[in-house]
Amino acid sequence: MSVPRVFVNQACAPNAQITLEPNDARHLMRVLRMKEGEAITIVHAGEAWHAKLDEVGSDHATATIVEQLKATSSELPVDVIVLQAVPKGMKMDDVVEKVVELGAARIVPLRCARSYGGDSDVKIERWRRIARAAAQQSQRLIVPDVEQPLSFHDAIDRFAATSHVVVAHEGAAQGSLAVSLRRDANATLAIVIGPEGSFTNDELQLATNAGCDIAWLGPTILRTETAAAAMLAAIAALRGWW
Fold first, then answer.
1. Which residues in 93-178 belong to E strands, given as ranges?
2. Which domains does the chain have, with CATH numbers?
């Protein structure tokens, strides 16, 4: 079993004692059945540290830092922002979990003309908790932020000015995703996933006018909750991370 990873807000240094968050303490004790003296990895500010548990209680745990771990390539070589139209039901939970596992740097819930799902402060907080748990499980060095929702118009206006924006659409030219992902290698990528009913013509025209790429994800029609993970896998492969 891999060594459990925990994110903390405290600065780390050899011999420093770190207090873990109650949720992490409960997970270590109740789920992983860990005991005093066992090893964990603590992550702060993108750096990983080897630590040993001093005590583990039902909602309280502390650990002492032993040493800093060597940097590993657990992050994509390019920052990828996932702009995801919120799907109906609980599907956004799965989207957040999977894109974090696959290396997304940030997640922005989208409100599109044909969106079925809704957002709220309660949902956003749940998505942030899911992102944190997925980052720990997948051995990330950062916890990707789930930002406040944006309308499609506001999202394109904001990200087209600073990022290479790629909008997934079944009507794009064959092979266009590979072509798009091979250019602007050093630019931040923003991938845009539409709702169950796809984008409207007006939304696609808005994106095109703003200089965004419209990209084809293959001959099969992917569900909205699948598309972002598929694009991140393509990015990982084409940029040499896999």
1. 106-111, 145-146, 150-151, 164-168
2. 5-68 (2.40.240.20), 80-238 (3.40.1280.10)
